[in-house]
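Here is one chain, start to finish.
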Amino acid sequence: MPKSKVRKKNDYTINPASRIPVKVKAGPSPVWYVSVMLGFMVAGLVWLIVYYLAAEHISWMADLNAWNFLIGFGLMVIGLVMTMRWR
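Its structure:
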């Protein structure tokens, strides 16, 4: 049986510019950034714990009712979103 012909065709072209290493400009995050990030997460957790344990004694917190969950989880989400920029 005869052998089939093999095509010598490039399926793709290599872009020489894509092989050049790129320098990353940003360095590690400052200490204050990590402190603020962890502070938001801890503040949200503390807010929810205080709401559960002492909402009857704190009148303005009792008036917020279910908004306390939004505030507590919102603070924690802000801290979690900050982790995406942390280096």
